[in-house]
Amino acid sequence: MMSTIPAPAFHEGDEVVLANGTYQGTLGVFLRLKEDAKWADITERDGSIRSHPVEWLAHSAGAIPASVN
């Protein structure tokens, strides 16, 4: 039986937030999935590009940056 890989929930340019993990609350822009599709590159607000597990990402609609509080 052949298994299929589900389409990614994120697309290039989507605004994302790290919903879990060490850097929870970090805002960024989704760039691409890595070769291991469980990981993705995002551009963080400071311009750095970092890899994070896809399961930690969420769309940032409605997210409030910590600096606003």
Keywords:
69 residues, mainly beta, SH3 type barrels, 5 strands, 0% helix, disordered C terminus
Please tell me about this protein's structure.
- A five-stranded antiparallel sheet has the order 4-3-2-1-5, with no helix packed on it.
- The chain has a domain at 15-62: SH3 type barrels (Roll), CATH 2.30.30.
- With 69 residues, the protein is mainly beta.
- It has strands spanning 15-18, 27-33, 39-44, 49-53, 57-59.
- The N and C termini lie far apart (51 Å).
Topology:
Elements: E1 15-18, E2 27-33, E3 39-44, E4 49-53, E5 57-59
Antiparallel strand pairs: 1-2, 1-5, 2-3, 3-4
- CATH fold-level assignment of one domain: SH3 type barrels
Structural class: mainly beta
Query: Roughly what fraction of the amino acids lie in strands?
Result: 35-45%
Largest sheet: 5 strands, antiparallel
CATH class of one domain: Mainly Beta
Low-confidence stretches: 63-69
Shape: globular
Our measurement of the CA-to-CA distance between the termini, rounded to an integer number of angstroms, reads 51 Å
User: In order across it, which strands form the biggest sheet?
Assistant: 4-3-2-1-5
Assigned CATH architecture of one domain: Roll
Question: Kindly state the mean pLDDT as a whole number?
Answer: 84
- The secondary-structure element order is EEEEE
Query: What's the number of extended β-strand segments?
Result: 5
Gyration radius, rounded: 13 Å
Helix content: under 10%
Quaternary state reads single chain
Concise summary:
The chain is mostly beta strands and 69 residues long.
